[in-house]
Design goal:
The protein has about 180 residues and is an alpha+beta fold. About 20% of the residues lie in helices and about 20% in strands. It is built from three helices and eight strands. Strands 1, 2, 5 and 8 form a four-stranded mixed β-sheet that branches. The relative contact order is 0.19.
């Protein structure tokens, strides 16, 4: 009997600890990024919660068709409800040579792992989270205006869950 009681106490403890994480339901989020009315390939899209105490950041990468799927916990799972500011970054294609072909299938967890591995090769960490001794991270040249790529300057916003596909229209000259 003591084993059964211990098992029940352990199960109750697990359920109590897991309950706070179950309060908000994650929703699938699909969107498209257009630059000058053309699909933007190979861009990172980050949804940053306006109120970080009520939500969690989500991100994704655009494929060749400009479409992205947000990820919060596992590849393509979506995002939590809430208001977000949106940051979109795209590096000069020359600096994306190692990712070419991997952003094509942004629902593939192995593709995401491979892209992360390539990123870590370019930006090796050391103790303290800085580039390794004597190594500098490669400087990637941004091709989007700061009003899209800088979290402090972005004017892009989204309210989730969204009804339908999110369309983010950008201009290479800036502006909405």
């Amino acid at each position: 009997m003591p084993t059964r009681r211990l098992w029940c106490v352990g199960l109750c403890l697990v359920l109590v600890l897991a309950a706070p994480g179950c309060s908000a339901k994650i929703s699938k989020v699909e969107g498209i990024v257009l630059l000058d009315d053309k699909p933007l390939e190979g861009a990172s899209v980050e949804f940053i919660p306006v109120d970080e105490s009520k939500s969690k950041a989500a991100n994704g990468f655009t494929g060749s068709d400009g479409v992205f799927y947000l990820t919060t916990y596992t590849s393509g799972d979506g995002a939590l409800p809430g208001e977000y500011k949106v940051v979109i970054k795209k590096a000069d294609p020359a600096s994306l040579s190692t990712m070419k072909g991997k952003v094509e299938d942004n629902n593939n967890p192995d593709g995401m792992k491979s892209m992360y591995g390539d990123f870590m090769k370019k930006h090796p960490p050391s103790l303290g989270g800085k580039p390794g001794a004597g190594q500098k991270p490669e400087k990637e040249k941004a091709i989007l205006p700061a009003q899209y790529s800088d979290p402090a300057k972005t004017q892009l916003k989204a309210l989730l869950p969204a009804s339908g596909r999110i369309e983010l229209k950008l201009s290479s000259k800036g502006g909405a």
